[in-house]
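Hi team,

Below is the intake form for Transposase domain from Butyrivibrio proteoclasticus. Please confirm the fields before the structure is written into the shared record.

FORM ID: S-0412
PROTEIN: Transposase domain
ORGANISM: Butyrivibrio proteoclasticus
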Amino acid sequence: MYKKNQNRQITLKDFDQPLCLKLNPENKWIKKAAMISWDDIEEEYADLFPSGCGMPSKPLRMALGALLIQKKYDYSDREFVEQIQENPYYQYFNYRDSI
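The structure came back. Fields below:
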């Protein structure tokens, strides 16, 4: 089962950081996120889950974003979890504002 994201695309202003830190819009992960047509890919991704039964799949941006980062740097699963916990740019790249 897949539930499509009904919310709008987030902006840098929407992505809250502790201590009011601001993300740099020139960062490569911010730029890559803007280049990817998440909505178009999500249409095809949702078709892979035709059943209305079972637990919903992970959001497209979370699943694909994680895979892209993990493969780029050849992180193990455990390393990737540690990296995404510490790197707000990775978090932004994988962010989806509702589940």
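SUMMARY LINE: The chain is about 50% helix and 0% strand.

Thanks, M.
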